[in-house]
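User: Here's a protein and a ligand (phosphoenolpyruvate). What would the complex look like?
Assistant: Let me lay out the input and then the predicted complex.
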Amino acid sequence: MRKNIVAGNWKMNLDINEGDTLLSNILEQPIDSAVTTIIAPPFIHLERFHQMLSGSNIALAAQNCHNQVSGAYTGEVSVKMLKSVGVQYVILGHSERRDYFNEDSITISYKVNHVLEHELRPIYCCGESLEQRKEGVHFDTIEKQIKQGLFHLNEMELRNCIIAYEPIWAIGTGETASPEQAQEIHEFIRSIIAKQYNPMVAEEISILYGGSVKPSNARELFASKDIDGGLVGGASLDAQSFGQLTNSF
Ligand code: PEP
């Protein structure tokens, strides 16, 4: 059975002290233990958070990784390094990485492989721009991203992936996809997985929605049949809001 998940993407926010304060405040919130709760802080926090989170139900994610184990890749961080500080999940292909760092789905697919080889779980992001939605090519865009990034995997490997549908026009804009718009895409993603693999795998993969999720809209979004939770930016930087999101199923 697929899991309900709330994952907080802190992006490039909060220094060491600010990060400690936010995590301490999050740890005081009532977090629903039936929900897989994940925090993806900047790299500098990971080792410390691993210690602070021991004994809690909150798991650690990284926001990116490189696809090589080690070597002359200045400024990069490998999955082996992430694993050594307790990371269990890696967000891959966030639209900000695709847009600002020119990552395409093929590049991201190598990272997916690398994460899986180290027995961590990728949170693979996909989503269309406003222009693509206006042109009516959003289904094609998402199908291409999913096919190129994930469909080289075998069934077992795919089962270890989490998918996040994040329409770019809804990220950090305050504008949320309606539950109907999000559900339509989630159902579509499940249908292409069912076609490529089989309906059972499609049913088992958690697909998160991301794009201005907050306590006031989460319950309605998460109630949709194919939405298994959220990848959350802004609202994950507020301890109370983040706690409330885990109680919105
Ligand atoms: C995100 O960064 O993945 C995101 C969805 O951000 P926000 O919740 O702020 O729109």
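Summary: Strands lie at 5-9, 36-40, 58-62, 89-92, 121-126, 162-165, 207-209, 229-232.
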